[in-house]
Give the backbone structure.
Amino acid sequence: MNRVFVLSILALILILLSSCASAPPPVKQAPVFFPDPPDPPRFQYLTSFRGARDLEGTKSAFWRFISGGKERSIVIDKAYGIAGYKGKIYVCDTNATVMVLNLVKRTFTPLEGARGAGKLVEPLNISIDKDGNKYVADPVRGQVVMFDNNDAYVKAFGPVEGWKPVDAAVFEGLLYVADSKKADIKVFDIKSGVFRNSIGKKDDAASSLGLPTNLAFDSKGYLYVSDSARFQIVKLDRDGNGRGTIGALGKVPGTFARPRGLALDRKNRLYAVDASFNNLQIFDADTSQLLLFFGKGGVEPGDLYLAAKVAIDYDDAKYFQQYADPNFQIEYLVLVTSQFGARPVNVYGYGTMKGQAYKSDEELIKELKALAAKKLKEQQEHPEKTGDEKTGDDVLHKKN
């Protein structure tokens, strides 16, 4: 009888195993490239994530049998900040906590240290330093909360009386925090946690901030501030002196309506999100020259829906090459969040297509400046030509 029972159990296990559903392979879809042909592609939309099932796959019948449980249906409710670091992608769900997408273990879990003293109320933005420490700006808690490279709680910066921390960035042992209420940047010593000073002078038009929302440092130590009141990106040195601006209020490429998240790649290209245009604009940070833009509002693969934040990730491209066109070689990932819709975390690859020629940034900048000069000359010589004709901006910003 025992033998019959054992055989019955084995048969049941075999039946359950036969009905297992493993993690789904990449969904095959027509590749989405930017910019449009005939320009050679620079970006490919790869995939998106919303919840546990997108990363972990559907659990098998056998798993449900032995665990006696149902599948988790954890999803991101409202994404904003995002950052990638060595096999993990961290996403701020402003209605919950920071979610961790572990690309190695293929798990989707809340940030381990975000409980007790590290509990988050409304995590808005996250940045990660070179040692893997995380800094989460929580405007409702009124602090920037620090977690170590194992995701454990370390300390909190602030509160500073009457402030509203909305983003944070690290450079050489100092933490720079965008304060949207006081319209300046607070500076803290990371080791001691002590507040040092504020930058963003009210008496200096070049550096005076209106409504700072996002921050990013370049490799030279210049701080870029996304300013929604000025409708532009403000460049500051670490003492808070103005070093230039990028963009202005407008509705054509190179201008902004609702500037938000910022990120810089290793070649000093500045990526800037516009929540109104639902796109990314890429500038040469040294010259402020627009190089390229991509994205649009919508619900199709590659579209954005109230775009919020962008992050550059060099560590994890290998996990996404499987989604790319066989001839498209990814150099790094561009991670972009949408606050609404079914694709809160969007993954794009920056790279090159085999067999296609690409201009260097220097060649591109030279060509764009020549086109702009030509346009200006035409406007000066023929000021009467206005209306529906194609403008120089259309030509200039179509270039790759």
